[in-house]
Amino acid sequence: xxxxxxxxxxxxxxxxxxxxxxxxxxxxxxxxxxxxxxxxxxxxxxxxxxxxxxxxxxxxxxxxxxxxxxxxxxxxxxxxxxxxxxxxxxxxxxxxxxxxxxxxxxxxxxxxxxxxxxxxxxxxxxxxxxxxxxxxxxxxxxxxxxxxxxxxxxxxxxxxxxxxxxxxxxxxxxxxxxxxxxxxxxxxxxxxxxxxxxxxxxxxxxxxxxxxxxxxxxxxxxxxxxxxxxxxxxxxxxxxxxxxxxxxxxxxxxxxxxxxxxxxxxxxxxxxxxxxxxxxxxxxxxxxxxxxxxxxxxxxxxxxxxxxxxxxxxxxxxxxxxxxxxxxxxxxxxxxxxxxxxxxxxxxxxxxxxxxxxxxxxxxxxxxxxxxxxxxxxxxxxxxxxxxxxxxxxxxxxxxxxxxxxxxxxxxxxxxxxxxxxxxxxx
Length: 427
Description:
This protein is 66% helix and 4% strand. It has helices spanning 21-43, 66-86, 94-115, 126-151, 160-178, 181-205, 210-233, 237-240, 260-264, 269-287, 289-299, 301-306, 311-334, 348-358, 363-385, 392-410; strands spanning 48-52, 61-65, 123-125, 249-250, 266-267. The strands form two sheets. It has a three-stranded mixed beta sheet with strand order 2-1-3.
């Protein structure tokens, strides 16, 4: 009985078909644009929608007729969707055209909401919106960076929620007991690292399923912090849950830049540290020997091992480093904004995980994705403040809806590091 060799058989390329990913997104964008132009245009009023360049109703502003703005921005979204559907957009311009369409839809929506707001409230303070976006995005930025460090090393980090929560708790507890924000910050970092150490030991040493152990660690952090909160913080708030706050630092000259200046250059240490870490981790990941080894371990650990890279040591080190970063993100709650409460992270760790995927496992991509989700959260707060007709329950859902839409519809085909989630057993 003979066998047929198949190595030399030519395989015809598979036809991509008409309904490519770009065209499908184009249809969705086209439908959203039509909805915006017709529905938002009809619901908007002839009042001027004012987008002030300050944190109140005073000062310079961009003004547009509510109805006209809703229609024109809707048409812009329609044009972007039609271009994608027609297949005339080069691949390198896809992201730009998609962004134009999304911005057009959001701007149309805002023209309706701002123009229809009660008298005296038909303005949007852009400084507050930008500042709020960054504040709400901060834990997502730190959490997504923690995910980048882990998953680029081949370890799935579902425990971001627990790392943020433990960091918030440790920062509040030790910051209050010592009266020092700096000791609180160090304690928060170590709290996040504690959860990461458990993740590293069980996932790397004992080869436990990384998703399962991540979920278990989230529950551990939730239970442990909840128990200690009830036993310590609730019994004596002054002694255990009144942490000091980091002061706001203004950067001369830069703080005077319209809109961006007051929002970005009058912030606390977490804002500056978050932006610096994005830059440092990006450069380290793609421009240093450590970054090359990290990416090699995440893509092909066996090949890295043959070249002398200590795979398990790299994974241990990076997972613990990720916990330090996430712990600092948790402290951005309790050492800058709030006192500690049970489960105060409220699912932000999972949104950070979505930002990691949306950002394609890149520090800069994770930053942009976190800002996208932070804007959705801030938008919900703003619409509630102007008594929007949209139900408050739906407004509370905005960041989570944005997460699902972004990951399911906008990311498209992305590839995680090849060895992500796969335990390495040294031969």
